[in-house]
Amino acid sequence: LKMSWFWLYLPLHLLTATCLCHSIKAPTTSSQQSFKTDLFNFYHSLILADGKETTIHLLKDIPKRYYFVLEEGRVLAPFSITVTPCDVPIEWSILVYKSPPGKATPGDHDTQDVSKSQKASGMVSTIFNYKGNSVETYMGMSSHPALYLLEFLSTERDTHITVYLTSDTTSGHLYPELPMDPRIDVIGIGHTTVTLTWKHSPSVLQHRDSIQYCLLVNEKHNYKSLCAAETAIRSSGMKLPPTLALSLSPYLLEPQQVMILSNSELSIINKVSSGEVRQVCVGTKNTYTVPNLSPSTQYYFDVFIVNLLTNASAAYTGTFARTLEEPEPKVTELKDGKVIHVVLDGKRQKFYSLQYQARHKKIHFTFQLCQGQVRVHITRNGKTVASENLSGLRYFSLKGKLLDTYLVQLRSTEESNSSVKVQASPHFHKPLFPLLPESLKIKSFSKLRTCRSVTIAWLGTQEESKYCVYRKRIEEDQIWKELQSADRCSGPETRHKSEKVLCKYFHNLNLQRAVTTETIKGLEAGTLYLFDVYLFGPSGIPVRYHSKVVKTRKKC
User: Fold this and answer.
1) Cα separation of 47 and 28, whole Å?
2) Does residue 151 sit within a domain?
3) Is 316 a domain residue?
4) Do 256 and 218 contact (CB within 8 A), yes or no?
5) How far is 186 from 319, CA to CA, in rounded Å?
6) Listing from the earlier edge strand, what are the strands of the sheet with 418-426?
7) 198 and 298, same domain (yes or no)
8) By residue range, what is the domain housing residue 506?
9) What is the mean pLDDT of each successive set of 10 residues along the chain, which is 556 residues long?
10) How many degrees, rounded to 5, is the angle at CA 164 between CA 158 and CA 167?
11) Residue 433 counted as domain residue
């Protein structure tokens, strides 16, 4: 900005007037006091950059001032100022100091009197003021050189704002343009989804490669700017990546954040105390279905049009919607002694419900965890009687009254699918599963390993039972997959015949001696093997021990 006229005229004029005001003994008039205040405001102000977005930090109840001077020599000088509050409402105003006709010289100022100083104070006027937390833009036009003073004040708490001044209104906009109708329309509502649409920004049509839409979803309220949304999340004790994280840039996330990338869309889910705040960038699509919402919950939706080159954004008018109530879950009847195999969807995290009506006072529930992690919740006539995470084989023996109604609810506790087998029967009913040892671990003996054989051991019970041993050759990179994805409910029927090693019967009335060992021969040197043991009870349903991986010696 050219400020030649300002430095030649205004400082000398103001300084001379200041000296005269101090040298006169007469009582200070209100106009003189106002003029002194104007001088103070100017000399405690900072220059506001033209054509650049400036971040300004405000302390509570302490005004902050910036000034700028319009270029001299232009007949009509247009300019615009955009202020974006990033938190609480603020007050801001624009004051203008106009230059009188003609330029004064230093000699002329020496002969000025108090009355002229009082006239100078009349050259200051307030042309705009605003109070609130909306993004506000002032557009003005000046026909003569002038100095402008911007004053900002926060009366609620310390905060920050962004200010954008430009005197070049012909070379494009820093902020993307909003359409004539900037509202977001809700065109579909489901139990866990909401579908939104909005009108295209003119900026998308002109600069498709550098513009994209970003959506913010939360359960508290709408945000009037992306800056305000990020500030609210930070105030919850989080650190956010830069705004460009919304534009699919691979920024590192905090522990409280989850990043999901699918179909070229980036979702950043911030786990804050007040719920989830979800940020999703969808490119230049103007219709989007928000997935994975909770039923019967009110959500607030904001769409921001983001310029990837300048990081500047503009906000559509936010909207809100309430998802539909979840329908009553389907309840499956449990019958005496019948086994039900339940597969649980980890992504939806929904309960699977089973109902059983007691025909005896004592009831026996059996759960065999097949895959994943499952939580079980059992109620009797609406009151909780058991609730825990399942592990391996689990029995619940419950005592109640005839015709009591039991409700069993199962849920996967991880994102991958889980499965479990369930049986309900009277307490005296013949057990479906065999009597189990204290541990289902298989032990290998390192000292007994050779290049061609491996010795393993496992615990048995006091009950005569059948045990079958299987082996499988695997590679190093298959270990994790084999151990994690194993279906613990599957029996030997799923194994290849060549993997079978042997079957044997044994038991011992003395539990301390109910241990058996087996040496598996005919193996290859320096090779990894996966060993499984299956236990068969009277009913013939197997229980699988925890798989054991052992490597034969390379050299003997």
Assistant:
1) 30
2) yes
3) yes
4) no
5) 8
6) 339-344, 418-426, 362-371, 393-399
7) yes
8) 442-551
9) 41 36 38 49 70 89 89 69 90 82 41 40 80 89 81 92 83 80 95 94 83 91 87 62 38 38 46 64 92 91 89 91 84 89 81 91 90 92 93 87 93 87 76 80 94 96 92 90 79 91 93 93 94 86 89 91
10) 150
11) no
